[in-house]
Q: What sequence folds into this?
């Protein structure tokens, strides 16, 4: 039954995206949207993406955005339950409006308790635990020389916990984001540079609004004798479910 439901959902997405593509071609209805940019994208050979390729890219972005955002929100709520002292700290601040939240996620630009909490959870549990890149030319990094056209894996999870960048790196401590970081490249939950996550701004708004609203209405009480560990897949999940009770505030 779940397989049939999944196929039906995918079919619905395909039809919706194709209808939007055709409407944009006819009326320019989605100018300056991600869909319009995808339709204007070209392959390495200079050819425009086909309709099927655009549909595939939209589905990839939809899936990646869904899993990454839900996973990081789960880690946010898990951490809030494990560190209840931050409940009142966060609730004491006014919920920021969406248009006031800066999407570039520069740690030194936000010093409120809510933002420090979010940054520390993103440090410990980055939604994408790794990033792959291919070299376009030979490059030297430290004592290593990487040839041209080689795939390089960057472990964001390890960078965020590396003792060279973070004091007591395994310890939850949002106050470390109270001041500008000495090494800004040590905090890259959504990547860095021109290839950083396209949905970073949207994810930023969803995380901030959801966490603040949940925290304002509930206290999260963890069940006794529970612990969980990270589980690496496409995004960073948990090895098992973590159960909490919701206590109305």
A:
């Amino acid at each position: 039954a779940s397989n049939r439901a999944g196929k039906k959902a995918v079919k619905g997405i395909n039809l919706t995206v194709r209808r939007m593509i055709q409407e944009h071609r006819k009326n320019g209805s989605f100018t300056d949207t991600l869909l319009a940019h995808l339709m204007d994208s070209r392959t390495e050979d200079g050819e425009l993406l086909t309709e099927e390729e655009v549909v595939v890219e939209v589905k990839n972005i939809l899936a990646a955005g869904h899993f990454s955002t839900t996973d990081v929100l789960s880690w946010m709520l898990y951490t809030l339950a494990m560190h209840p002292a931050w409940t009142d700290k966060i609730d004491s601040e006014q919920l920021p409006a969406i248009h006031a939240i800066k999407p570039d996620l520069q740690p030194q630009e936000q010093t409120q308790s809510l933002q420090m909490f979010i940054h520390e959870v993103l440090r410990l549990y980055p939604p994408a635990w790794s990033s792959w890149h291919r070299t376009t030319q030979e490059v030297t990094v430290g004592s290593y020389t990487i040839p041209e056209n080689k795939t390089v894996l960057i472990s964001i999870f390890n960078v965020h916990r590396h003792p060279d960048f973070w004091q007591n790196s395994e310890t939850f401590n949002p106050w470390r984001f109270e001041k500008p970081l000495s090494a800004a490249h040590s905090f890259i939950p959504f990547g860095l540079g021109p290839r950083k996550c396209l949905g970073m701004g949207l994810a930023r708004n969803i995380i901030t609004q959801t966490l603040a609203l949940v925290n304002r209405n509930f206290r999260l009480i963890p069940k006794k004798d529970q612990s969980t560990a990270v589980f690496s897949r496409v995004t960073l999940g948990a090895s098992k479910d973590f159960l909490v009770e919701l206590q109305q505030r």
In short: Confidence is low (pLDDT under 50) at residues 103-111.
